[in-house]
Amino acid sequence: MRKDFSRLPGEHIITWLLCCWDNGASSLELEGREAKQLGSLSREGGIDKAIGKKAQALSLWRRLLSSVRERYPFSEDVICRPGKWTTMERGIKYMRELAMWEMVYYDPDNAQLPTDPDEVQCTRLMLRKFVWSAPSSCFNSLAVMDWKSEEAPTVDEVAGRLWQYEETLSSSLVSAVEKLSREVWQLKEDRSYSPNVQTSISVY
């Protein structure tokens, strides 16, 4: 469990939480004394102490969220990593991290709020941050993509559209390369079968 849920040196808090979710932290029920035996998971004393604070049986996931929220009570204290993503896979991971940041500050007693980051609705701010972090090669396409709907899309729905966009882009690129290859091949064929042209040079 320490191997699956320990924060790596230098790893961002939100990235660590997302990794814990993906590794199944929501399926592990722990009492307070059991949680304390895990030792330092977050590499921050305030968070680690809070993980084993409640004695009753709770999922490790709920313990992690509440501990981070207790250590950083204001959302401004935990900022998702800046910088550009270079692949669609990393871009979608960044979108999921933005959703995780939203979840940290959800009301834990509100049963109507999602417990899965992929089910979090993408706010305009989340979409804006995602687009601004996109590489220049696809910034314009993502900026004009129609995200409007009666209800804000979930992270999973946005990810599906992004993978579709990536597939379309890749297909167009492959088609262009194949077309160019055929044209180059045809040009070589034309040259190989063309009759030799003799050039006479007149000397005056």
UniProtKB/TrEMBL annotation:
InterPro entries the UniProt entry points to: Fv1_restriction_factor
UniProt superkingdom: Eukaryota
Name under which the protein is recorded: Ubiquitin carboxyl-terminal hydrolase 4
Organism of derivation: Grus japonensis
